[in-house]
């Protein structure tokens, strides 16, 4: 019986947490998605002095979870 009470208290606590943070989430999404730049050094605010094919492959794959095959 104690486990059921603990689960119920956890569910109520989670519901209260979601309700309390609901306005923050709405405000974050109201501003729209974050800006994303195109790949390549010409689209960087401070491009590097040297740029190799490996750098290009890494930059094109970001934010993918897998590294590029040429690396």
Task: Provide a short characterization of the protein structure.
Residues 28-71 are annotated as: Disordered. The chain is an all-alpha fold and 71 residues long. Helices cover 52% and strands 0% of the residues.
In total, how many beta strands? 0
Strand content: under 5%
Q: What distance lies between the first and last C-alpha atoms, to the nearest angstrom?
A: 56 Å
Low-pLDDT ranges: none
Portion of residues in helices? 40-55%
SSE order in H/E notation?
A: HHH
Number of helices: 3
The helix/strand class is mainly alpha
> Main sheet?
none
From the alpha carbons, calculate the radius of gyration and give it in angstroms. 22 Å
Overall, the morphology is: elongated
What's the overall average pLDDT, rounded? 81
Region (Disordered): 28-71
Structural write-up:
The protein has helices spanning about 1-20, 20-30, 55-60. The model has no long low-confidence stretch (mean pLDDT about 80). With about 70 residues, the chain is an all-alpha fold. The longest helix has 19 residues, at about 1-20.
Task: Please outline the helices and strands.
Elements lengths: L1 H19 L1 H9 L22 H9 L10
Summary keywords:
single chain, 0% strand, mainly alpha, 71 residues, 3 helices
């Amino acid at each position: 019986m104690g486990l059921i009470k603990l689960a119920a208290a956890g569910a109520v606590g989670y519901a209260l947490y979601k309700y309390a943070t609901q306005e923050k989430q709405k405000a974050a999404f109201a501003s729209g998605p974050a800006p994303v730049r195109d790949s390549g050094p010409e689209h960087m605010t401070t491009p590097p002095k040297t740029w190799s094919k490996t750098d290009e492959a890494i930059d094109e794959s970001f934010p993918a979870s897998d590294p590029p095959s040429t690396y």
